[in-house]
Design a protein that fits this description.
With 379 residues, the chain is α+β, with helices and mostly antiparallel strands. It folds into 4 domains: 46 residues; 91 residues, Trypsin-like serine proteases (Thrombin, subunit H); 103 residues, Trypsin-like serine proteases (Thrombin, subunit H, Beta Barrel), CATH 2.40.10; 94 residues, PDZ domain (Pdz3 Domain, Roll). Helices cover 28% and strands 34% of the residues. A 6-stranded antiparallel barrel has the order 1-2-3-6-5-4. It has a 6-stranded antiparallel β-barrel with strand order 7-8-9-12-11-10. The longest helix is centred in the first third of the chain and has 44 residues.
Length: 379
């Protein structure tokens, strides 16, 4: 009897401890539905974000396309026609003849009355320059002026028509990782748009231009993109596409654009005076190296070394000295002489800039008022 009671008790315990398989399956199904429901919401959220981003790109294209131009040039070149076989057979050493050559590039409208910005190397030494819009309209243009040191040129369409200009953004406010969109006519393929991000800013010492302070992007840039705009997600110009680094000649994700602030300053100066008038500070600069860093007892190699201050210059008036190290211009870090020059080139004579410097291992701020460039150019 006792054994029977024990057996019954054990059976009851087992039955009570076991859950109903149907209930358990129901609970698992509910949990799975919950998980599926959450995943579906996430998918819908991502899809919505993707569609919004896609819509933003489409809107940028629609807003910008009527402002982008294909640029073609014509120029006459003299070539030697010497033929050694002809000389051997006939005693005729050949001569010279004129031939027509040209180039292709891109540009964009910057004013309703037809001013256009492009690269200097696109139109350099051209006899004739034509611009063509995406709708097929083509116009001859006049070259207003160039800045070879920055690689900017300004053209003018002589027409009573009103054109649609692109607006410039403040390139000092760009962020690494933000969207960048390149427009142009790569390899002669008109009306092209590529998308990437800002990979870096303040790139210099690349040996591309005299004044270098490039924005780096991985948006595909190829031959023919030169002079086209690099824009942000709102369609405003943040740079002018200028060059690539590549072993193949094609895009490998290393594209460089002139910052919009510098391009805009050059554009304004050329339209006003026919040339780019760089502001003057009166410094001879050198990049920092390990010897200078050790001698100056500074912790970082970031900055620009002042080798000499020109007598009577704005730099001298501001109290700058040889062996000072400039680490920032208006709060923006500068890591090379090229970047420093590029930052100042975007300013105008009469403007003041605040330089953050290191002197005797101590940091301080110095305010400099820029002047007009003298005939003898200093940096």
């Amino acid at each position: 009897m006792k054994k029977s009671k024990i057996l019954i008790t054990l059976l009851l315990s087992i039955i009570l401890s076991c859950s109903n398989p149907l209930e358990q399956k129901k609970d698992e199904t509910t949990d799975n539905k919950k998980d599926i429901s959450i995943s579906q919401k996430e998918i819908e959220k991502h899809n919505k974000n993707a569609l919004e981003t896609q819509g933003a790109f489409i809107n940028v294209y629609k807003e910008a396309k009527d402002s982008i131009v294909n640029i073609r040039t014509k120029k006459t070149v003299v070539v030697n026609t010497y033929n050694p076989l002809e000389e051997l057979l006939f005693g005729n050493s050949g001569g010279q003849e004129k031939r027509e050559s040209g180039s292709l590039g891109s540009g964009f409208v910057v004013s309703e009355d037809g001013y256009i910005v492009t690269n200097n190397h696109v139109v350099n030494n051209a006899d004739e320059i034509y611009v063509k819009f995406t709708d097929g309209r083509e116009y001859p243009t006049r070259l207003i002026g160039t800045s070879p040191e920055v690689d900017i040129a300004v053209l003018k369409i002589d027409s009573n028509e009103k054109f649609k200009p692109l607006q410039f953004a403040d390139s000092d406010k760009i962020e690494i990782g933000q969207w960048s969109i390149a427009f142009g006519n790569p390899l002669g393929l008109n009306d092209s748009m590529t998308v990437g991000i800002i990979s870096a800013a303040g790139r210099s010492s690349l040996g591309i231009e005299e004044i270098e302070n490039f924005i780096q992007t991985d948006a595909a840039i190829n031959q023919g993109n030169s002079g086209g705009p690099l824009v942000d997600i709102s369609g405003k110009v943040i740079g002018v596409n200028t060059a690539i680094l590549s072993t193949s000649g094609g895009s490998v994700g290393l594209g460089f654009a002139i910052p919009s602030n510098l391009a805009s300053a050059v554009k304004d100066s050329i339209i006003a005076t026919g040339k780019f008038e760089r502001p003057y500070v009166g410094l001879y600069l050198e990049n920092l190296d390990s010897q200078k860093i050790k001698a100056l007892n500074i912790k970082s190699g970031n900055g620009v070394y002042i080798a000499q201050v020109v007598q009577g210059s704005p730099a001298e008036a501001a109290g700058l000295r040889p062996q000072d190290v400039v680490i920032a211009v208006n709060g923006k870090a500068v890591n090379s002489a090229g970047a420093f020059i590029g930052e100042l080139a975007a300013k105008k004579a009469g403007e003041t800039v605040e330089l953050r410097i290191i002197r005797n291992a101590q940091t301080m701020n110095v305010t400099v008022t820029l002047a007009q460039s003298p005939k003898i150019q200093q940096q």
